[in-house]
Design a protein that fits this description.
This protein has 330 residues and is mostly helical. It has two domains: 55 residues; 262 residues, MetI-like (MetI-like fold, Orthogonal Bundle), CATH 1.10.3720. It contains eleven helices and no strands.
Amino acid sequence: MTSTASPSTLLEGDTRRRRGRGAERGFSRGFRWISTGSGITLLIVLAAVAIFLVQQAMPALTASSEDLVAQNVLPQGMTSLWQLILPLVFGTLLAALLALALATPVAVGIALFISHYAPRRVSAAVGYVVDLLAAIPSVVYGLWGGAVLAPFIRTFWTWIAETLSLLPGVEVRATATGRSVATAAVVLAVMILPIITAVSREVFKQTPRLHEEAALALGATEWEVIRTAVLPFGRSGVISAAMLGLGRALGETMAVLMILSPGILVSFQIFDAGQQQTIAAFIASQFPEAAGLRVNVLIATGLALFVITMLVNMAARWIVSRRKDFSGAN
């Protein structure tokens, strides 16, 4: 015996469905407006930061050399703002690039080990330990680098300097304290290692299984599968991860301030003390006692760091966009 729904029941069900669709459309519009508002807010905040930096740095950028010298806002012996900014930019880039060169190969190796080589339990444990490194405060890294790493690694830096100095026309110096930009770069490399590892690991895990099985079916070894299928697929992701790590290294303050014995020089003596200084560490060390035009000078150096960070991100976007047709970015 078949029961037939009454017209009132059908009408009630249709009304309920229309209300449900209306509510879904309302939620969709609300989510769209929230997303749009979030994006606009981000652009407004970025523009506000840029305007603040330019506005506050303008007195220092437009001040004459006589005013800068008369108000004693520059380090001794300097008569121009660019004599301060250029060595700081050099030291910042040098420390960050050294850290990136040290961290990226290790991070990619750890990511491959976790995603393709290690058993499930081992990969979970290693991944947890690597992620835990990101939770350690930078001041703890600074204490470790200054109190433990610098005295330990100074002998190794001295040996490298003496070995390189045997080459004709090469003079490499090493400090006896170990507080050099090379030591700071090692600490920065440890700090950015979790970022690069985490992003690279997730990218490698997204490699299509069919690509790996096809390589194995053609007789490829496990390393050849990694080289021909996994690494090409994840190339753009690794580049993005490296740029994220570079951004962290460029802006790191406390660890560098606590380790590096600073100097404001354009020098490639990475094992010697009193040679380089980074922008962030310089601002942190000088800002508490700054006043007047000196504050504008420090903000001008901060503007330089802001521009460097923007250029790094733009370069990363350009590299990824060029590589995405040949990798897993699609």
